[in-house]
Amino acid sequence: MKTMEYHNPVLLKETVDGLNIKPDGVYVDVTFGGGGHSKEILKRLGENGKLFAFDQDLDALENTIDDTRFTLINENFRFIKRFLRFHGVKKVDGVLADFGVSSHQFDVAERGFSTRFEADLDMRMNQEKALSAFHVINEYEEGQLKDVFLQYGELRAAPAMASLIVAHRESESIVTSEQLKSVLRKFLPPRHENKVLAQIYQAIRIEVNQEIEALKEFLSQTPEILNENGRLSFISYHSLEDRLVKRFIRNGLFEGEPERDMFGNFEVPLKKVGGLIVPTAAEIKINNRARSAKLRIATKA
């Protein structure tokens, strides 16, 4: 099989440092991709250490690492507890996640993730799933489309965009990225076209892959599978992800505040380690994908 080209992992040293790796520990990389973070973890593990990795994208399987300490699981990380238990693992010492779309997925035109290429509307991270960008754009009701653009793209013009798409598809389906751009052209001012397109694509992609639901399910399981003093090291790329990660680390919840005892204190399962970490200007120059990355580290309290 052809080797898949993946770019440099973002915040490599900082993210793996955040795990505070023990040589004989058990760790999980839930966003394997090209294997960059996993390879760095394996460098720091001893012969008795173990690393499990998750990736729902079949392309990622071509990057598997030939190492007896390593196991790659072709599943969505929302099922982390189930599949770790399948492999006889109930507790781990650290979990690493690099959320969002891999550089490989952006760079393969036919996957439909990038605004740079003309492609069929797809955007599926797991290509075996039925729901694609085509289905969202051509089959969702106007109210559903509006909600997708508003919630996941934070687009103020969401109602008008949804209305225009529904009106257009009465005469013909919207099949390609260029057709979608053409339909929404009035919302793409020349100076801000790329920014608005990125928001539109983000919204559709999140809906297609159910990213917010998957992230919530995943985060909710992490305190249960972490050993005492175990670490979480998570990179987010947009405010929706980062907000959920930040709130869960702080409160153990996604909304509201945790219940307090009679003395006004509350217990949460996690405790943040250090402050927010962002890439240096030098890393962004080398790897443009790093520009919006935010790394948060937590430990089991």
From TrEMBL:
<dbReference type="InterPro" id="IPR029063">
    <property type="entry name" value="SAM-dependent_MTases_sf"/>
</dbReference>
<keyword id="KW-0963">Cytoplasm</keyword>
<keyword id="KW-0949">S-adenosyl-L-methionine</keyword>
<comment type="similarity">
    <text>Belongs to the methyltransferase superfamily. RsmH family.</text>
</comment>
<feature type="binding site">
    <location>
        <position position="105"/>
    </location>
    <ligand>
        <name>S-adenosyl-L-methionine</name>
    </ligand>
</feature>
<keyword id="KW-0489">Methyltransferase</keyword>
<keyword id="KW-0698">rRNA processing</keyword>
<keyword id="KW-0808">Transferase</keyword>
<dbReference type="Pfam" id="PF01795">
    <property type="entry name" value="Methyltransf_5"/>
</dbReference>
<dbReference type="GO" id="GO:0071424">
    <property type="term" value="F:rRNA (cytosine-N4-)-methyltransferase activity"/>
</dbReference>
<feature type="binding site">
    <location>
        <begin position="35"/>
        <end position="37"/>
    </location>
    <ligand>
        <name>S-adenosyl-L-methionine</name>
    </ligand>
</feature>
<dbReference type="InterPro" id="IPR002903">
    <property type="entry name" value="RsmH"/>
</dbReference>
<dbReference type="InterPro" id="IPR023397">
    <property type="entry name" value="SAM-dep_MeTrfase_MraW_recog"/>
</dbReference>
<dbReference type="GO" id="GO:0005737">
    <property type="term" value="C:cytoplasm"/>
</dbReference>
<feature type="binding site">
    <location>
        <position position="55"/>
    </location>
    <ligand>
        <name>S-adenosyl-L-methionine</name>
    </ligand>
</feature>
<protein>
    <recommendedName>
        <fullName>Ribosomal RNA small subunit methyltransferase H</fullName>
        <ecNumber>2.1.1.199</ecNumber>
    </recommendedName>
</protein>
<feature type="binding site">
    <location>
        <position position="98"/>
    </location>
    <ligand>
        <name>S-adenosyl-L-methionine</name>
    </ligand>
</feature>
<feature type="binding site">
    <location>
        <position position="77"/>
    </location>
    <ligand>
        <name>S-adenosyl-L-methionine</name>
    </ligand>
</feature>
<dbReference type="GO" id="GO:0070475">
    <property type="term" value="P:rRNA base methylation"/>
</dbReference>
<comment type="function">
    <text>Specifically methylates the N4 position of cytidine in position 1402 (C1402) of 16S rRNA.</text>
</comment>
